[in-house]
Design goal:
Elements lengths: L1 H23 L28 H13 L34 H8 L2 E5 L6 E5 L13 H6 L12 H4 L3 H10 L8 E2 L4 E2 L21 H16 L3 H30 L5
Antiparallel strand pairs: 1-2, 3-4
Helix pairs in contact: 1-8, 2-7, 6-7
The chain binds heme C (HEC).
Length: 264
């Protein structure tokens, strides 16, 4: 009897362990053709992985200074940058609308709004509650300015592409040396001319801005924008595991106490 219980307990510990291991196996699928995807050890992978805040902040800088010329972040508002878990979260400002960094980043954009009195469209500096503005009036205009292909929205692209973060990083680092429109990760011709070159941005934190560094940082930022609740979800998962583990131990001891004086 005791033995079976012990077995059952061991079994449940193994099951919990397997679950933990399973959670850390990310959706690692490869891209098409004979191209070998380069795999990176992302900070946010695994059961306890979190976003690297400094990398996200550098990534936002890359997005703002480079990618935002063509790509929108449709599903994001400026205030999200200051949400808990976001790149510019600050404990002093639980409400990101009050966060000075967030306000400054919002004000750095021009946002079109309709004047409710006159019905006219006017342009004013952004405020934290605004969505990231569209770059082009519509897809046709976007395609017309970009070799016939509209630049896709980037806010959820890490989730939308097979290979996720690795894929985005590979696209940004697999351009042909001599032809800015040829990309190995995209299987040849691409409508996005190589957007990165060494030293393109000057990082606020002094990190050398190599192509590889910028590609990793902007990918980190886009991984967050595609899944801003990941950290909260993981810490809840951990609490549940801990709870189950403690429950198993309590059950074991109460089993022993209950059956202590029973002969079998
Ligand atoms: C000059 C405009 C322009 C800039 C700047 C630009 N892109 Fe693009 N991007 C495009 C266009 C156009 C496409 C569509 C390419 C295609 O489908 O051939 C694209 C496609 C992409 C794709 C998607 C590939 C796919 O699977 O569909 C990613 C990811 C991407 N860009 C990321 C970025 C990032 C990150 C930056 C900033 C470092 C950036 N882009 C800067 C125009 C641009």
């Amino acid at each position: 009897m005791k033995l079976t219980m012990k077995k059952a307990l061991t079994g449940s510990v193994i099951a919990i362990g397997a679950l933990i291991a399973g959670m850390s196996v990310a959706s690692a699928a490869g891209g098409g053709s004979d191209y070998e995807m380069k795999h990176k050890d992302w900070h946010f992978q695994g059961m306890s992985g979190t976003y690297d805040r400094a990398a996200m902040q550098r990534g936002y800088q890359v997005y703002r200074e480079v990618c935002s010329a063509c790509h929108q972040l449709k599903h994001l508002s400026f205030r999200h940058l200051g949400d808990k878990g976001g790149p510019y979260y600050d404990e002093l400002y639980k409400n990101p609308n009050d966060n000075p960094d967030v306000k400054a980043f919002a004000a750095d954009w021009d946002v079109e709004v309709v004047d409710l009195d006159t019905g006219d469209i006017e342009t004013r500096p952004g405020i934290p509650a605004d969505q990231f503005p569209a770059i082009y009036p519509n897809d046709a205009a976007a395609a017309a300015s970009n070799n016939g292909k509209a630049p896709p929205d980037l806010s959820v692209i890490v989730k939308a592409r097979v290979g996720g973060a690795d894929y985005i990083y590979n696209v940004l680092t697999s351009y042909d040396k001599d032809d800015v429109m040829m990309n190995k990760a995209m299987g040849g011709q691409i409508a996005m001319a190589n957007p990165l070159s060494d030293g393109l941005v000057e990082y606020a934190d002094g990190t050398p801005a190599t192509v590889d560094q910028m590609a990793m940082d902007v990918t980190e930022f886009l991984a967050w924008s595609a899944d801003p609740k990941m950290e909260a979800r993981k810490s809840l998962g951990f609490a549940v595991m801990l709870y189950l583990f403690i429950l198993s131990i309590l059950l074991w001891f109460s089993y022993r106490a209950v059956w202590r004086n029973v002969k079998h």
